[in-house]
């Protein structure tokens, strides 16, 4: 009984390995002209070549790729773009972000405003936002990335004043 089990078990492992290889293979599976599985090699290759042409990526002698110094800056900017602030239990304090960015930098001001909205900040005024969780590190990193850190301040307060009820309702506190 035991002697039959081991060859069957090894055979089952081999079959599982073949199925996993098929699932994660580079080859795409198309159904009626629509890709339903796998990567499109051409798009992947074009993306790598695009990053190489932009001097963000370089190829090692062993065939692997690495980020250039410019590539590291670009990649950290992409991480900031998709970064979310982790919510902990509310400590009863509000973080009030105030900024006064000059008109010459209006594009960066709009980027900051859009980022704050996407992170879930509550807009009190066009240049005043509130958030109930610690966010200083994330906001300052993004402001430094945009080059506008000198134009904004974060104030920690226990009360938002008249608009606190609306802000509590917005954050479900």
Automatic annotation (TrEMBL):
UniProt key word Transmembrane: no
Gene Ontology biological-process annotations: maintenance of CRISPR repeat elements
GO MF annotation list: RNA endonuclease activity
A UniProt-annotated Pfam family: PaaX_M
Chain ranges of the Transcriptional repressor PaaX-like central Cas2-like domain: 88-165
Keywords: Antiviral defense, Endonuclease, Hydrolase, Magnesium, Metal-binding, Nuclease
Protein name as catalogued: Transcriptional regulator, PaaX family
């Amino acid at each position: 009984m035991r002697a039959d089990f081991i060859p069957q078990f090894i055979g089952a492992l081999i079959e599982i390995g073949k199925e996993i290889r098929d699932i994660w293979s580079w080859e795409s599976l198309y159904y009626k002209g629509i890709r339903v599985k796998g990567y499109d090699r051409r798009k992947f290759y074009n993306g790598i070549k695009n990053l190489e042409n932009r001097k963000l990526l370089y190829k090692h002698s062993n065939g692997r790729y690495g980020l250039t110094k410019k590539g590291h800056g670009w990649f950290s900017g992409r991480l900031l773009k998709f970064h979310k602030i982790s919510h902990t239990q509310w400590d009863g304090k509000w973080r009030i972000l105030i900024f006064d960015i000059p008109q010459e930098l209006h594009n960066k001001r709009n980027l900051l405003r859009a980022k704050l909205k996407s992170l879930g900040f509550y807009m009190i005024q066009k240049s005043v936002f509130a958030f109930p969780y610690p966010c200083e590190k994330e906001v300052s990193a993004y402001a430094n990335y945009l080059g506008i850190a000198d134009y904004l301040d974060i104030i920690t307060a226990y009360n938002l004043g008249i608009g606190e009820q609306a802000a509590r309702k917005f954050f479900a506190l």
